[in-house]
Specification:
Number of helices: 1
Strand order of the largest sheet: 4-3-2-1-5-6
Distance between the termini: 17 Å
Helix content: under 10%
CATH topology: SH3 type barrels
Largest sheet: 6 strands, antiparallel
CATH superfamily: Ribonuclease P/MRP, subunit p29
Structural class: mainly beta
Radius of gyration: 12 Å
Number of domains: 1
Shape: globular
Length: 90
């Protein structure tokens, strides 16, 4: 099943390109790159060869689907263990 705007929350995020569009930490605004790791509360985004740790709950993300379409997601909806998040229905 391909990633769409409707099902992006139920897919694996590692490997997607992401940009932080809003965050309670102003130093994270504009962070962009490839998601390389995901835990219950954070996304790790590789930017220019360095890993940036971004808390999910206090950020909003713009994901770029493989087709090039962009999808904005509130990080609060991503909080939870990745294996449990992909099973959830919304």
């Amino acid at each position: 099943m391909s990633i769409t705007k409707r099902n992006v929350l139920r897919h694996e995020l590692i490997g997607l390109n992401a940009r932080v569009t809003n965050s309670s930490d102003p130093t994270l605004l504009g962070t962009y790159g490839t998601i390389v790791d995901e835990t219950r509360d954070i996304l790790t985004i590789e930017q220019a060869g360095r890993a940036k740790i971004v808390p999910k709950a206090s950020s909003k993300f713009m994901f770029t689907r493989p087709s090039g379409e962009k999808v904005e997601v509130d990080g609060v909806k991503l909080v939870g263990q990745p294996e449990e998040r992909v099973k959830r229905r919304r």
